[in-house]
Amino acid sequence: MISDEEAAAIKKQLLEQIAKLPEEQVNGLKEKIENMSNEELEEFIKAGSREQECIFCSIAEGKTKSYNLYEDSDFIAVLEIMPASKGHVLIIPKQHINSLNELPEEKAEKMFSIALKIAKSEQELLKNKDYSIFIDPMQRVKHLALQIIPRYDKDGIVFEFRRKPVNEKELGEIQAALSEEIAKAMKNEKATAEKKKRQEEQSETESEAQKLMKHIKKRMP
To answer: Does residue 20 register a pLDDT over 80?
Structure first.
């Protein structure tokens, strides 16, 4: 275990590093660092070194301590250790992927389905007014994570984005191009679903025919 002198030096260095962060983040981290025992500080440093390997992969593999809520073969849902509000949850794909684009559609649907179930369970237990489900656009950890933040009255959470005006011509062009692309995607999805259904029906028909042939052969002399 690190000595008191080493702990004091490490804390000083950490406090200097976090001083550049936004004030609302600094206050919480500062108190946490100052109150850490030598053992907790040592584990914090080890976790920091593991983060270079990907902290979310480490959590998914069980190498880093986490407060697990749900787990299956594809995802793990854990409590955020620096929550924006009580019950802040991260849903992490076990496979290391950087963005939603890399996640197969069926797994993306599964991830959001899990999120809704967790959010509704939290609402039942925590009595929060609402919840926000989103992927952090900052993505400080280069590993996809879906966030669930329970919303309470006067929770102080603000989502701010830089917005700029756009003219009607540009909006019209985007609308025309995007609606056409969406229509193509929907048509392709429908065609794929119909093809899959036909294949399943054909497979069932062939299976029934095979059963009938076996039955006939048994009755043949």
So the answer is: no
